[in-house]
Amino acid sequence: MIKVGDTLPAATLMEFSEVEGNGCSIGPNPVDVVKATAGKTIALFALPGAFTPTCSAKHVPGYVEKFAELKAAGVDEIWCVSVNDAFVMGAWARDQKTGNKVRMLADGSANFSKALGLTLDLTARGMGLRSNRYSMLVKNGKVAALNVEGPGKFEVSDAATLLAQTKA
Predict the structure, then answer these.
(1) Looking at the annotation, which residues are catalytic?
(2) Distance CA 132, CA 33 (A)
């Protein structure tokens, strides 16, 4: 499992864009993790699945609400990663009204989650291999803080915890 001080693995996540923008076409666009984190501070949180109860009611809304405080604390971007496809993450972004506050990034085949050593096997619940619930503060591609939840828990990966860590 990745730990504080480690560099994020080379991986490509996918992001759904509804409007054309700086180098992004409409539809799914690749996000090279190494390039996208270079020289930036990223508040990254991951969760088992889009539209799931805790993720939709607490996890994503907390980061949307704390956006201004995280930016003021030096965070350049907030990323939400889930083992879903980019279309689902795009629909969830609309549902959660993440706007330009949280980048909703798809880890469709769980390659990023596997490389981090942070997978969760929910096959018995009909969901297959997913991401564990966690948050991390990433500075210039290196893990500065890591908060991994226990099974079925939502206690340490919330926005308030990561915000406190940006100030530490």
Answers:
(1) 55
(2) 18
